[in-house]
Amino acid sequence: xxxxxxxxxxxxxxxxxxDRFTMDVLQFILFIALSVIGGxxxxxxxxxxxTIIGAMFAVGLAKTFHLLTLETTVPMAFLLQVMLGLxxxxxxxxxxxxxxxxxxxxxxxxxxxxxxxxxxxxxxxAKVSSFDQSVSILSAAPGGMIEMxxxxxxxxxxxxxxxxxxxxxxxxxxxxxxxxxDYLYRKEVQKGGKQYETLGHH
Length: 202
Fold this sequence. Notes:
Blueprint (H helix, E strand, L loop, with lengths): L9 H35 L5 H15 L9 H17 L6 H32 L4 H8 L4 H10 L4 H32 L12
């Protein structure tokens, strides 16, 4: 005669599910807290797009040291992309048809030149580095860091690499261009040119 024992595992399963849900909630709260703290520090340090960089580093360090185990989900990624779309949409300016016609030639010239320079720079970066062409082209694109990071995430590329390369670009421009423009301004004044009024020059 075979005796079969039946154990009631429903209660254990419910307990495990509750514990898992509690951990997920705590991880999400930690994720939000780290993002806010990192973003605040980045903003206080007055870094380029410091809010984003600070939040990224805070969450990244927590993931590196296994303090944060939260993973990106499809609904979370969708919500973040929708929020980004709203932010970008609010920056659009209202232009009349006449203004668009005046800008048409410049828009076409700038668009083609930007595409050409981006592709050439991307291919050169891919040749001299270990990055693939997709990451290199996206890193060379003269777009905003937020937009480029979102595109990289959507295309399953290395978003942190793209962000860091764009951060280096922004820091370089902010460091070198003021010095270069000040030099050109002084050369213009020395040649007897018009002393136009600029920021910091009267």
